[in-house]
Amino acid sequence: MAGERRRRAIVQLVKAGTCDRDVEIPCEVRDPETATTFRYALTRWDRLCAYTLDGRPSIDNNFSERCLRNIAVTRKNFLFLGSDRGGERAAIFYTLLNTAALNGLNPERWLADVLDRLARGHPINRIDELLPWNWSPQAKQKPT
Prior knowledge:
The protein has helices at residues 2-16, 32-43, 45-53, 62-73, 84-102, 107-119. By secondary structure, the chain is mainly α. The chain has 2 domains: 2-53, no CATH class; 62-130, no CATH class. Helix 1 (2-16) crosses helix 3 and helix 5 (84-102) crosses helix 6. The radius of gyration is 24 Å and the shape is elongated. The mean pLDDT is 78.
């Protein structure tokens, strides 16, 4: 879908002037809102052209907004964390869980495994092995 949208954007930019800085608002645009939209695009023309030439940038920030949605949904609950330290701990907790998700892990499974390993006496000098980007599941060990 993104590839198709990018292809259509390139076609429209070619029609508009192939990323040429001399592009102007068409004379037939009389609607102020449409003119404002054109002005917005023209002031960001270089970035708009970069979007069509490089496949990495996204045209919108939907991915970032989806990542923040969990926090926005529970915003009122954060008023009742009890203290500033409680808020800091919650921030750390949410950061770790979202980092696990961004690393392609199931956050619940990752957290359960990390807590289990810590309870079983995981060495403190190897704590970095438990971070989401280093973590790998291990076979369940029998309690000693």
